[in-house]
Amino acid sequence: MDIDDILADIDGHGEPQETRDLQELTRAWVIERSAPEVLPWPESLMGRVLERVRQQGFQKIELVEEQTGDMDPKTNFRLIILQTELERFKFLVRSFLRARIAKIDKHALYYLTNPTQKARLSASELQYTTTHQTLLQAHYHSSFLSQFPTSLQRLDDTVGGIAMIEQPDVDKAVFVRVLKDVREPIVMDGTDMDFTMKRGDVYVVRWSAVRDSVMEGDAELI
Asked: Which terminus of the chain has fewer CB atoms gathered within 10 Å of its CB, N or C?
């Protein structure tokens, strides 16, 4: 049995759902890192991935590692491949979560006060964001806000039509690849420009112009 036989044996026993989950997770990771705002939490995907990581990490892999000394080199090599696959999932999950947390940290109050954006967070992220903003506001109050008049201590003030809450830059340029033909022309807000996206096309365009297409799965960020 050579390396091709070992790989074929592993692939043959792998679940098709696992491959699809890996592809979806990789795509979600790339899009999340490229988009200027937090995207909807992929509840079902992350549930499957995290459960698989827990099962493999705390049950199957540990059980095999206990018997490694009694295994022949080919079996040990198969274990290495399985562990490498597990680490790939773990890396993608960690990097995906870090990308989301970085955006949440930067605009925590925005995600807490905007119902649409707030709905995109997972339960854990919402709890984290609430705690983060509470601690930040307490720090600001003890450092300098307490010295201001009460009317000037709010962090979400909109007096004079100017909002104090910083928002993500939705006009940031992103690279987008079209997965399906989009019938409706894409209109660039604030300009008289529009274009039609065809499958296979790649554009550098404002995020706000292609956000809906990406959300609907007609295009993806690269």
From this structure: N
Spatial distance between the Cα atoms of 27 and 13, rounded to a whole number of angstroms: 24
Per-residue pLDDT at 3: 45
First to last CA, the chain: 39
Dihedral sign from CA coordinates of 162, 168, 174, 177: negative
Element (H, E) at 93: helix 73-106
In the three-class reduction of DSSP (H, G, I as helix; E, B as strand; rest coil), residue 98 is classed as helix
Six-digit token pair at 81?
A: 């491949």
Q: How far is CA 68 from the centre of its chain?
A: 36
How far is 135 from 132, CA to CA, in rounded Å? Answer: 5
CA distance 202 to 176: 6
Helix, strand, coil in percent for the chain, rounding step 5 = 65, 10, 30
Q: pLDDT under 70 in the chain at which residues?
A: 1-16, 57-78, 158-161
- Whether 198 and 6 have beta carbons less than 8 Å apart is answered as no
Its pTM stands at 0.80
Percent of the chain with pLDDT over 90: 46
